Predict the 3D structure of the following.
Amino acid sequence: MLISALLLIAQIVSLKIFDYFEREPRAKALAQEIVTIVNFTKVSLDAAAYNKRLQLLNELSGLGDVNIYPAYYFEPLEPIPDDPFLQLVVKNIKEKLPPDTLITINHYDVPGIWVSFEIDYALFWLVVPRTIIDRPFPWHWIGWGTIVFALAILGSYATTQRISRPLRQVINGAEQIRKGHTIINPLPLDSVSEFREVSQAFNEMSANLSKISKERRFLLASVSHDIRTPLTRLRLSAEMLPKGSDVMKESMEQDINEINEIINQFLEFARGFEDEPMTPTNLGKFLSDIRDKHKRMGHNFKLKKKNLRIDIPKKLFIDIRPLAFQRCLDNLINNAFFYSHGEVSMAAVLMEESFSISIIDNGPGIPEDQKDLLLRPFERVDEARGNEGGSGLGLAIADRIIKAHSGTLELINRKKGGLEAKITIPLNYG
């Protein structure tokens, strides 16, 4: 629309500029034509015998729609209309005729331009028809302008489409990468040269990212698998400790469990979740199952449903990857219990176009300048939360899963103390 408006304005301005520069040459030509008629009439009358002038005046009058009338001094004259073109014609006529020449328009209600001339102290009017002065509306220019404008619109539309199509493809591809998806089909290279280079660079970047992702998964899976073997031997060794070594045995089992949990997170991060299909899932039942699961684990866990209708557990379905989403909530809940003082709650809030799930604890919170660090892989803060054990992958995995659902994960320090991990997901009814 903006391009169309600009083209239309440019077309109008072009016509105005043409009219402006065409006006003066046309006015000079018309003035010269009128001056020539006046001078020809004067010369003809001067050359004619005195007794033949009346007959000659009658012959000249009406010649080529030009009329000649006697004039009288001190006739009331109408001023020249305020028309730029007409004013320019009158100016040019006065420059070429004697200074006392009178010029008026539509004198005695007779249309035309009236120009006075004098012969032997007799004053006459020469009347040039108004049709010579009045310019017809330039319909042909309007027609040509319309054609040019239509061609310009079509050209700009084609150019815009040729530019915007590869741009949209790059944007969509970047969005897929942001969500953690792998670009299977490379971007086409049939666009304009500048975007062809961009598309090619994007394809190379996507291929490199895919390669790095595969290598990372393979490395983490290999390392995790290799660690599990000696870890199993350590667990057997702990079981075979002699009686009286309960404290050592408990300490070893705790360390082994912690290492095993870290390995599980490594494998979880390496495995990804892109292959799991989106499935319509009952939101209320899904959250209730999460609550019951953690209650069985001995967690003091509460589910609060704010602004949720009573029939939502039965009727509200959302498209999610259930296993991945459960993994995300488990990570957030386990993290909350690890740093809380024994109480964690989950609140679900339904809005018009989205829903949110908040995991709330009463722990120490997170320094404001370190919130973003916790959402990165292998990052742990140095204060309050995150200074004890762990792989630094739990929140990163959760954030990755939420982004794959076109959602956001926010870490919010509560005024009354504690931390709120807030998930916001656009609604998609199955």
Observations:
- DSSP finds twelve helices and eleven strands in the chain.
- The first strand starts at residue 67 and ends at 70.
- Residues 224 and 264 are 8 Å apart (CA to CA).
